[in-house]
Amino acid sequence: MASTTKIIAVAIIVIIIAAAGYWYYTTTQPRKTEITLMTKAGMWADFIKTSGVLEDYKERMLKEKNVKVEVTIITAPHRGYGEKLITSFAAGSEGDVCWVSPTDLYRLAETEYLLDLTPYVSKWPDWEKFYPAAKKAYTIGGKVYAVPNDAATMVLYYRKDLFKKAGLPVPWQPETWDEVIEVALKLKEKFPDLPIIIEPWYEEQLPIYSDGGVIYDPSDGKFIAKSPQILYMFKLYYDIIYKYGLMPKEFKLERWDDRKLFAEGKLPLMIDGTWCYTEKWGPNGPYPIENREEIIGYAHPPSSGRPNNPHGKYPNTFRDYTWAISARTKEPELAFELIKELTRADIMAKWGHDTSHLVVRSDAVIGDYAEDKFLQWNTESLKYAVPKPPTILFNKYMDALKEVLRNELLINERTPEECLEIFAEKVTEELGEDNVKEIPIP
Amino acid sequence: MKILKIKAWIRDNLDQIVLSLLIVPALALIFTFQFIPAAWTIWFSFTDMALIGKKALNWSFIGFKNYLDLITDVYFWRSMNVTIQYCAVSLVLRFTIGMLAALFMTLSKVKGKIFIAAVFLLPSAIPGIMHPYVWISMLEPNYGTLNTILGSFGLPRQSWTYGAVTESLIMINTWAGYTFTMILMASAFKSIPREYYEVAEVYGASRWQKFRKVTFPLIKFPLILCLILIFKEDIDDFTYAYMFTGESPRPDFKTELLSLYAYHKAFHYYELGFGCAVGFIIAIIVFVLTLLQLKFARL
Q1: Superfamily of domain A31-151+319-386, CATH level 4
Q2: Looking at residue B57, what is its pLDDT?
Q3: pLDDT, tens digit, for every residue of B65-121?
Q4: Are B108 and B187 in contact (CB under 8 A)?
Q5: CA distance A357 to chain B (A)
Q6: Which of A233, A258, A384, B87 counts the most CB atoms within 10 A of its CB?
Q7: What is the CATH T-level fold of the domain A154-317+392-438, as seen in this structure?
Q8: What is the DSSP string of A203-255?
Q9: H or E element in which residue A271 lies
Q10: Using CA atoms, how far apart are residues B280 and B262, in angstroms rounded to an integer?
């Protein structure tokens, strides 16, 4: 009997020790989980893989949260990325963390596909270091839906060598669009066979800002269907194409590779984004230009010359990408920690330098980025950059504008006044009468 | 007694039962991957479902509204017009060039005929997805091979990617697709017994009579089948037009084939319901053509 009691007692002690051991083992062992990250294939995914950011993230998560996290990168090609991203969200196959453009962001937020990051950023001390304009651009209805990764503005690029040959001064900074046209005409005279692309790459609304106008009035939440500044935009494009014959309309219709033409010295003047400087013409770009500093000149897009422009001397547009989290993620904390890592000051500076994008946090002007003359210069343009209206209607507004510019101005060769009327009608139809207003034209 | 009857029935029909069971996996696959997606597409076409925005969350059944909207949609008809042009011209070119190549392969006695035939078949040896990439570099307005050749002869550059973009699409489709006619018609020519021609020659038939009385009756059905198959293949073409157009429709709709229009509606404008309605229209056209094809194939 006594021996039986002893056996039971020993058994109980063994069980208790085993349970304690198991409890100790399971609580001290890291929890295993997986985070998926969706971004563009090519340099976007390559940067993440090679920058060491994922290793740092995994190490930090293990140390701080005792979580062994695996990060799987899902990629989609640059071309059509937005469509693939949205289709992935609709199908439920998106990543936990996604690389999202502002235009897609508004759509995704409206569909409740994105996690509201407000509670996360409010506890993040670094959030204060992000530029207010960037934060504002991704705050919809008071909720933060994305953390900005970089920024870009429009740049007036010119070939210094061709300018010199044409007897034009270098460096050059036009103060008005009339000055740009004047210089373009001189270039045309010197190089009659070369086109001049004075049209902002998918930021067609830029001349509206140049003339002190807006496309959206935040005070009443209405888009502008008709205004003197919209008419100015149509007139400027009309003059460049038809009155002065500077920009061949085939450029848009045939989709010329203007970046290649510029690199080969077949295009003296063009407008494109910040990123072109390194992403396209840098040593690792598709069209490298040797001695970039000596060949490529850059200037801010000017104003129309109208006094007291509310956007400043050199009105510009604000664009580029952000990181957002899927509302369906099972690991919101870890996903946000990944975003914190991806938008770290040193990582942002490296990305900005390697691909010529502007950083969006004040403490990221460091390392090679801080030494880069072009980026230093371009950072100034952020002062004049007008953010996009944070509403889904912006996409419809821009679609209507692009359609009128291409169908009516380019194909049907309509006058600026006709284009304005057609645009006003179209935008009112697309956005609804309650969402638009007209500013009288004197 | 009943069990015995069942057993006897199984024994008598064992072959049919085994054969029926053997096709079950294939039927299951067809049901899962063809019938269900098709049924979903038809269902979506009766809704106002969107991929994104408010209608992605709160969509509703709208009956035939998408189809009625299609009838009054000017872009749909523009797209239909482009598609018909594309199919009709492609049909003529693919058939004519393929037929000439087939005649060359079967009738010619030129040395190195096999090598020439292999060259003829090259387009079908190159993966379809590569075709547009190859052709984009050929047709690029400033750097493309065709404009460089034209320029070297002092001829003006052509707007292959805008002014003549529909023609460019047809050109690529013809280049990639004439081999189908060539193979089909060459096999039809080859299947005609030589004895028929020998008999016709004995009776003093001319070349035209031999063609009319021997060749044509024997190739009539493969020929009709070939025409239907080409048209069917082209009516839902997508790849080349997509490669030339990109994500958004061209402003002039010159490359907006029906399938691309359906794609843009569903995945560019995110109007999934409407896109599915366009897709279903294409499916009906292809279905009718398939019935015709089956009818001729049986004959």
Answers
A1: Periplasmic binding protein-like II (3.40.190.10)
A2: 85
A3: 999 999 999 999 999 999 999 999 999 999 999 999 999 888 877 788 888 888 898
A4: no
A5: 24
A6: A233
A7: D-Maltodextrin-Binding Protein; domain 2 (3.40.190)
A8: -TTHHHHHTT--SEETTTTEEEEE-HHHHHHHHHHHIIIIIS--S-THHHHTT
A9: strand A269-273
A10: 9
> What does the buried/exposed string (b/e) look like for A367-383 if buried means 16 or more CB atoms within 10 Å of the residue's CB?
eebeebebbeebbebbe
Q: Which of residues 32-51 of B touch A (CB under 8 A)?
A: 51
Question: Measured between CA atoms, how close is B230 to chain A, in angstroms?
Answer: 29
Secondary structure of residue A99 in the 3-state scheme: strand
- What interface predicted TM-score (ipTM) does this complex get? 0.77
The phi and psi torsions of A304 (rounded to 5 degrees) equal: -80, -15
Report residue A331 as tokens.
């690991």
Instruction: Kindly report the number of other CB atoms within 10 A of residue B291's CB atom.
Output: 11
Q: Considering Cα of A366, then A368, then A373, then A377, what sign does the dihedral take? A: negative
Degrees to nearest 5, angle at CA A324 with A321 and A328 = 150
Hey, which residues does A298 pair with through a beta bridge? A157
Residue B28 in tokens: 């299951």
Residues in chain A: 442
What are A436's strand-pairing partners?
A: A223
Alpha carbon separation from A357 to A365, A374, A378, A379, B192 (Å, rounded): 12, 10, 9, 9, 69
Of B294, B280, B240, B295, which Cα lies nearest the Cα of B44? B280
CA distance B25 to B232: 28
What whole-number distance in Å separates Cα of residue A174 and Cα of residue A156? 10
| A78 → chain B, closest CA residue | B247
Of the candidates A111, A250, A253, the beta carbon closest to that of B56 is on A111
> Per the structure block, which two tokens stand in for A224?
């502008």
Residue B267 has its nearest CB partner, among A83, A108, A411, at A83
Share of chain A above pLDDT 70, in %: 99
Judge: A107–B52 Cβ closer than 8 Å, yes or no.
yes
User: In terms of Cα–Cα distance, which of B180, B203, B5, B184 is closest to B90?
Assistant: B180
Give the dihedral sign, CA B59/B64/B66/B72: negative
Cβ–Cβ under 8 Å, residues A60 and A341:
yes
- At A64, is the secondary structure helix, strand, or coil? helix
In terms of C-beta density within 10 A (0-12 exposed, 13-18 middle, 19 or more buried), how is residue B205 classed? Answer: middle
Tell me the nearest-neighbour CA distance from A360 into chain B, angstroms: 28
> Checking phi first, is residue B143 left (phi over 0); if not, alpha (psi -120 to 50) or beta?
alpha
The residue in chain B having the minimum alpha-carbon distance to the alpha carbon of residue A253 is: B162
Query: Within an 8 Å CB–CB cutoff, is residue B158 touching chain A?
Result: no
As a whole number of angstroms, the distance between CA A169 and CA A184 comes to 13
Superfamily of domain B63-298, CATH level 4 = MetI-like (1.10.3720.10)
Instruction: Give ranges for CATH 3.40.190.10 in chain A.
Output: 31-151+319-386, 154-317+392-438
* Contact between residue A199 and residue A224 where contact means Cβ atoms under 8 Å apart: no
pLDDT one-digit tens code per residue, A185-208: 999 999 988 888 887 767 899 999
Give the span between the Cα atoms of B283 and B292, in whole angstroms. 14
Q: What is the pLDDT of residues A39-61, one digit of tens each?
A: 999 999 999 999 999 999 999 99
Tell me the domain boundaries of chain B: 2-44, 63-298
User: How many Cβ atoms sit within 10 Å of the Cβ of residue A311?
Assistant: 20
